[in-house]
Specification:
The structure holds two protein chains of two kinds. Chain A is α/β, with parallel strands linked by helices. Chain A has four helices and seven strands. In chain A, strands 1, 3, 5, 6 and 7 form a five-stranded mixed beta sheet that branches. Chain B is an alpha/beta fold. Chain B has a domain at 2-87. Chain B has four helices and three strands; from the N terminus they run αβαβαβα. Chain B has a three-stranded parallel beta sheet, sandwiched between helices. Classes of the chains: A alpha/beta, B alpha/beta. Chains A and B meet through α1, β1, β3, α2 and α3 of A and α1, β1, α2, α3 and α4 of B. β7 (160-164) of chain A pairs parallel with β1 of chain B, so a sheet runs across the interface.
């Protein structure tokens, strides 16, 4: 593997600002948080932990109402024994081609089933949760969506939560 | 996602945030994060590559124990391609073909207010699943 032609990480905040400016829009207000994050202790090995998932790739299952593209702050509860073939992806802000070929690119359902079968993790939570990414209103995420996920995670008695944004 | 991670963590449940947007994740500073330098839409790997999916998710899970400093991040050692040329094309506004100066082509997807189904049959399946009762899975959706 050569290191030639390597760049640093894509600067999405700068590029979004440039794109909006090029279109004549006001800059998008990305969340910036100076305050140190909360930090909860990890008390069990992975092999004894119940794992929850929250993913923002616009994933739903057949039979669910799909997400819409206008500040949708609803979420879906996806049973963690779902078949990958019954999962769908819909979103306005990323190329869906590969996610629609194999949902495990953005939602590690088969991966976590296998890790549980192999005893690497203790168990999967009964439900995994999904929503849209790129929600315009931080206030609605903070006041509506995030508290829902907190209540669900507590009720599910998960030990650890893996977050999979897109 | 950082906002969600912080609230879950504040409730006493440890989180790891996977990321393929280094600057956005740094800006919201979640409790623990694991960065993969791939294009959006591949947060935990490539299609039909379960071994890679497993390695990436496993490194995400191991971060629960490895990261002991609040706000710290692990960089995973994978590259998307032999070169990083793909990055040149991410969200680069293209000049309008009609040459109107100072204006860019808007290539963003329209923000449709209605459900956007992957397959037409999904709309029928949703209607059937929701017929005559409250939805127990599409939280927040009125039917």
């Amino acid at each position: 593997m050569t290191t030639a032609n390597r760049q640093g990480p894509v600067r999405y905040i700068d590029r979004t600002r440039d794109q909006y400016a090029g279109l004549g829009y006001e800059p998008y207000g990305w969340a910036h948080i100076e305050e140190a994050p909360p930090f909860a202790p990890v008390t069990k090995p992975l092999s004894e932990s119940k794992i929850g998932v929250v993913a923002t790739g616009g994933i739903y299952a057949e039979g669910h109402t799909a997400f819409n593209y206008r500040d949708d702050v609803t979420y879906r509860a996806i049973p963690s024994d779902v078949e990958a073939a019954d999962l769908r992806a819909t979103h306005f802000a990323y190329d869906l081609t590969d996610a629609r070929k194999d949902i495990n690119c953005v939602f590690p359902i088969d991966t976590l089933k296998q890790l549980e079968a192999d005893g690497v993790i203790g168990s999967r939570a009964d439900n995994f949760y999904t929503c849209m990414g790129g929600i315009y209103s931080q206030r609605r995420v903070r006041e509506t969506l995030a508290p829902e996920f907190v209540q669900r995670c507590i009720a599910d008695e998960v030990d650890l939560v893996l977050l999979v944004p897109v | 996602m950082g906002l969600i991670a912080r609230q879950i963590e504040a409730a006493g449940i440890p989180t790891v945030s996977m990321s393929s947007a280094h600057d956005i994740t740094r800006a919201v500073n979640p409790p623990r994060s694991v960065y993969l330098d791939y294009p959006h839409g591949h947060t935990v790997g490539r299609p039909h590559d379960p071994e890679l999916n497993r390695e990436i998710v496993l490194q995400g899970l191991r971060a629960f124990h490895q990261l002991t400093e609040p706000g710290s991040m692990i960089h995973l050692p994978y590259n998307w391609a032999d070169t990083d040329d793909w990055k040149d094309r991410v969200m680069r506004p293209t000049p309008r073909e009609d040459g109107v100066s100072g204006e860019m082509e808007d290539d963003r997807v329209e923000r449709h207010p209605d459900p956007q189904y992957q397959l037409p049959s999904d709309a029928d399946a949703a209607a059937a699943a929701h017929a005559g009762r409250d939805c127990v899975v599409c939280a927040g959706v009125d039917f």
